[in-house]
Amino acid sequence: MKPEVKSPALLLVNIGQLLTLRSTVENPAPRRGHQLRELGIIEDAAVLSIGGKIVSVGRTKDALRDPWIKKNRKKITEIDCRSKVVLPGFVDSHTHPAFIQPRLVDFEKRISGATYEEIAEAGGGIRSSLDAVRKAPKKQLTGKILTALNEMAAQGTTTVEAKSGYGLTREGELKSLEAIRDAARQWPGTVVPTLLGAHVVPSEYKTCYPKYVEIVCKEMIPAAAKRKLAQFVDVFTERGAFSEEDTRNIFEAASQNGLDVRAHVCQLSETPLAELLRFDPASFDHMDHVKDDDIPLLAKHNTVATLVPGANYFLNTMGYPSARKLIDAGVPVALATDYNPGSSPTPSMPFVMSLACTHMKMTPEEAIVASTINGAWALRLQTRKGSIEPGKDADMAVFSISDFREIPYWFASNHCEMSILNGEVRRNG
Ligand code: NIG
Ligand code: FE
Fold it and tell me: I need a surface site. Which of 110, 136, 338, 390 has the fewest CB within 10 A?
């Protein structure tokens, strides 16, 4: 039974490879181990969506014989995919788009040999992005975020987690979250807002650092929750940023205010994860330096390990996160861009997937699962996003290639021809 066509109906036909990412288990959980290789491919496929929701998925010849489709064909927008590849829109589950300027001085300093931490200690890094964000009119910030969302969509991304984190005052963080909300309203895809008031301690609190943690817990979190400006609270848990104890306090405040949590951990040094896992974080991000003892523990939890190799590439770190070790031990893994002005200024999920395959030895199948359904789990959106199945949101990307492995293969080029965001079609290029 298909409903009356009241709202826009879209039929994709002649899809060469449709990567459905359909679930094959009864009690779905983030994908682990061999499940990270299951793409649920249908050849010569068709997808029907109505009003921004997927209604049916199958073979083109069956779709064209379907009596309901035959009867309503004039009301349906039909797209001939001419044997190309269609997959779920990417879920970029870790981005920092609320900034004003690129950090070109940091970029040049790193070219001359300085490290990310040395630059931060010398007054560059995250702190050097604060002034412009604090001074910027909200509209200007909204415009920057919207530009980034559009660039992401042009490369196949349809869902984006967007963090604040360059205001670092109550006003600056709330303004950033409002700008994220305003940009989201002008974009057809889905945006998940995250409060990252605990990005670094701003210099004005250098001598009274606990006071800043108190402001995050007692002012920023309650205000963001009350005004429904954030779904998650994030913390940069790292030497030079926030301790494990601060993170627990901030997570506690988030829970008390009804917000879910996630954290940047193990980017530059090891952080023990057992205590933080008690808060059931949706995701632990970066994960370059995970203690061996924590890996079996992570394998038992649904907290997703979100790897962001764009940051490793741009900071030219010694190595990349040990994706193989994590996957082979049963840890659910996602990939994200970490789009930000300091460590990863890329909006491109296909580039991140290419890095994951080349440098982290993930297979193309694993890179795709990590960029779609596991990204959805990392945002607790697994019932709506990340696969092409009836009932899910109509978020899809059409790539002008004939084999899905070409997505990570053609690095630094864009083969995404069309993005469909909640049923809205955007042709690229
Ligand atoms: O995820 N590590 C903390 N935050 C960002 C970097 C932000 C910046 O340098 O502006 C990251 O890499
Ligand atoms: Fe980040």
Answer: 390
Number of the ligand 1 atom closest to the C-alpha atom of 344:
12
Distance between Cα 393 and ligand 2 center (Å) = 26
Domain with CATH 3.20.20.140 in the chain: 90-378
Q: Is the pLDDT of residue 393 over 70?
A: yes
Q: What's the 286 CA to ligand 2 centre distance in angstroms?
A: 8
The response to whether residue 125 sits with its C-beta less than 6 Å from ligand 1 reads: yes
Asked whether the predicted pLDDT for residue 72 surpasses 90, the reply is yes
- Residue 264 CA to ligand 2 center (angstroms) comes to 6
Residue 4 has pLDDT above 60, yes or no: no
Is domain 2-88+388-427 in CATH 2.30.40.10, yes or no? yes
Query: Whole-angstrom Cα distance, residue 180 to residue 280?
Result: 25
pTM of the prediction? Answer: 0.97
Q: Looking at the chain, which residues constitute the CATH 2.30.40.10 domain(s)?
A: 2-88+388-427
Ligand 1 near 97 CB (within 6 A): no
The residue-averaged pLDDT of 30-53 equals 97
Closest CA to 338 of 202, 153, 152, 167: 152
Ligand nearest to the CA of 98: 1
Ligand 1 proximity of 264 Cβ (cutoff 6 Å):
yes
Determine the residue of 236, 268, 306 to mutate for testing ligand 1's pocket, defined as the one with the most ligand atoms within 8 A of the Cβ atom. 236
Distance 48 CA to ligand 1 centre (A): 40
Is residue 5 over pLDDT 60? Answer: no
314 neighbors 296 (Cβ within 8 angstroms): no
Per-residue pLDDT band at 7 (split at 50, 70, 90): low
How sure is the predictor about 3, in pLDDT bands with cuts at 50, 70 and 90? Answer: low
| 322-374 tens-digit pLDDT | 999 999 999 999 999 999 999 999 999 999 999 999 999 999 999 999 999 99
> Residue 371: CB partners within 8 Å, gap ≥ 6?
90, 91, 92, 334, 335, 336, 349, 352, 353
Q: Which ligand is nearest to the CA of 120?
A: 1
Class of domain 90-378: alpha beta
